[in-house]
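User: I'm designing a mutation panel for Porin family protein and want to avoid disrupting the core. Could you give me a predicted structure to guide residue selection? Please restate the sequence first so the numbering is unambiguous.

Assistant: Good idea. Sequence first, for numbering, then the predicted structure tokens:
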Amino acid sequence: MKQTALTALLLTLVSLPSQAHWFIKADAGGSWARQSSEHLSALPVSSKVDIDDSDLAWSLGLGYEFKDNWLLSARYLDLGEATTRLEAEVLDPQSYHQAVALITPTLGSGIAAELGYRFWEEAGFSALASGGLFRWDTDYSSRYLDDNIRHERDGTDPFVGLELEYKLSEQWRAGVGIKRYFLERNSVDTFGVSLSLSF
């Protein structure tokens, strides 16, 4: 269902007329996974865990702004990678790999389709609310002595966001915004800056 909706949004974007108000937009900032600590309770008491659940995030996409302040866009999004270091002497190799797969947060990369609305605009400033679907995948590896295993995850999940923009000229806008991605394993928050070019 989610993947069908994502495909429909992308096809709508491609089929818009050539005279439409197109724009290219780039975003860069940070990402933070919001993971519950309940998975850690399954580890041995003596375990030492170091989880890095944040990274750099960026995106680049193509969009269209309607005359009534609605925006539709598709972009490639990279939320970065999370890493986990686990020390637990009582775990056998199979249990170690399972534990790493369980406690490592999901960030991921993929294609995001987004629908936004510019609900306020004054003196060059404007505010936007948006939502959409993120088709993502991620892979990581866990190593125990000479045993190395690669793990993969993927999914299609919703997200929402808020952004404040300033109109630099008729073609250029700069902005700052926050988004939350409701991934299946954990939510991810992003905060960053953006630059868009209309044509």
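For picking mutation sites, this is relevant: The first strand starts at residue 21 and ends at 34. The mean pLDDT is 86.
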